[in-house]
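user: Here is a favour to ask of a fellow structure person. I have my own habits and do not want them to colour yours. Could you put it straight underneath, so I can go through it closely?

assistant:
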Amino acid sequence: MGKFLLLAFRNVFRNRRRTIMTLVMVGGGVAGLLLVGGFFARMFWGLRESTINDGLGHIQIFTAEHFDREEKHVLDTGIDNWRQVAGTVSTGGHVRGVAPRIEFNGMLSNGVKSGIFMGSAVDPVAEESLGFTPRLAAGRDLDTKPGGEVEAIIGAGVAHSMNVEPGDGLTILAVTSDGALNGIDVQIVGVVNTGFKEMDDRYLRITLPSAQRLLQSDRVTNLVVGLDRTESTDQVADALAPRLRGLPQQLVLKKWIDLAAYYKQVRSLFSTIFVFLGVIVFFMVLMSSVNTLLMTMFERTREIGTMLAMGTPRSWIMALFVLEATLLGVLGAIVGVAGGNLLGVLINHAGIHLPPPPGTNVPMAFRVLHVPSLMIGSSILVIVSLALAAILPAIRASRLQIAEALAHV
């Protein structure tokens, strides 16, 4: 077997120019898949972490009613004893903290113009402890000190539409938990840029006590749980579920992946694109390799005839061609992995930025992750492609007639 393998290895480098061209072609396919797949993996990772750190958190806790029916009034399906729930959750392993939230809608006015807002009430201290800091374009974040004027931060689109800036005031109106209309005056202390124009045009944030006073309710919409690492999400969710069953309200845990609709859509789209690129690379390597191996077979016709005349089994001839192609695939995979990783390092150090994705206004950094599973998968793909490409030439070589092969010129 060792001599058979050595013979195949020597045959691979018999025509060095052709072998080098084949390795460049195969290695280029592997390197291309690594760069594209590494970019997609980095984009998925960045989108995942930014989605979580922009306020989604790793786990969110709601009441079961929140998903079973529509709210008749604001906070109708909110969490009553949220402080007890937060205390229970915060003692779990890997939990960095728990932040209460109130989500509500209403109208805002500057005295001349009115508009709709999507409001979020938060505890600034809890949000900051979890790393949920707004992307301020002007001004500052909400003050954590009680008393004084009611503060708010708004989206850049709201600030432009209402012609306000930090230091100005607005009036917000909302329906209370009893169905009445209530309003408060707020002072704008900051303007944020969320990265999504539609969100910037409706965004408003106030403190939790101010929202509870406006909505006349002590409930919260949900609790956001932050963990020390995203990979612990499933483990923590499985551990917290039994601990919440004994509480007065029936509560539901939602992991970040269950709430990140945009992330799932982007991942599904680009995963499909990557599979499509992989199929293209597979057929390119397959067809070009078939042509190269057929040329090799015709050039070695007399050699094959000599081997057959010496009593070499036809199955050995077929196995030799397949083995040579497999060796080419292995060498091409090594070249491609080395080249792809080198190019990835160079790209990461180049500091390249791409235009903002659709729906956002923040440029995206061009970075490539080195994914071991992607290297293994791409390598297997080209090795299998070369082995399959060798089947047709191997069959034709094994079926040659000895007399015709020896007379071939």
The chain has a mean pLDDT of 85.
